[in-house]
Amino acid sequence: LDTLEKWVTEIFSEIPNNGLPKPSFDHLTQPFDTPEFHKLYRVVPIRKVHSLSITWALPPQEQYYRVKPLHYISWLVGHEGKGSVLSFLRKKFWALALYGGNGETGFEQNSTYSIFSISVTLTDEGYKHFYEVAHVVFQYVKMLQKRGPEKRQVIWEEIQKIEANEFHYQEQTDPVDYVESLCENMQLFQKEDFLTGDQLLFEYKPEV
């Protein structure tokens, strides 16, 4: 560690600090022409696959990294057991798979906005009923909104434990990739969370 510290000091200490704060774009609260979002776009696929994608542009969520609200919502939306959206759609023979969430990349999450998407892989029959499929997805999201998160702390704690297990038993990554990831984290999180901020859930805040 002493050798590494010496190298870092030698290589980077001569880089001047301009003393300027990190740029923020959080004043740009409407990056998208949102009326254009209230439309259905049909895209002809290259592969023979039917996919329905529903995308929301949300206020920026990156400051809530200790809570990870979008991760929590995607967990509920992506649930495949009894009472889930996918279970219902499979019984109708309308869908093969469903997943939702935020990619946590710079494009999908930043200081200006956050993207949340739900994607459904449709059967041929599901393609004929894609309006009904979209309706079911919106109904489920509405139900989550109405019921609220108060009674779901157990689910949040379950997600927290699973993510903690994955963090503690993850395979060793390529050192260069790991350093790059840490450098990105240093721009986003408090210093005590540089190693864990992108993976672990720390606080349960239902209001968020």
Automatic annotation (TrEMBL):
The keyword Hydrolase applies. Residues 167-207 form the Peptidase M16 middle/third domain. GO terms for biological process: proteolysis. InterPro entries: Metalloenz_LuxS/M16 (IPR011249), Peptidase_M16 (IPR050626), Peptidase_M16_C (IPR007863), Peptidase_M16_M (IPR032632). Residues 2-151 form the Peptidase M16 C-terminal domain. The keyword Zinc applies. Keywords: Hydrolase, Metal-binding, Metalloprotease, Protease, Zinc. Pfam families: Peptidase_M16_C (PF05193), Peptidase_M16_M (PF16187). Belongs to the peptidase M16 family. It comes from the Eukaryota. One of its GO terms (molecular function) is metallopeptidase activity. SUPFAM superfamilies: LuxS/MPP-like metallohydrolase. This is NRDC protein.
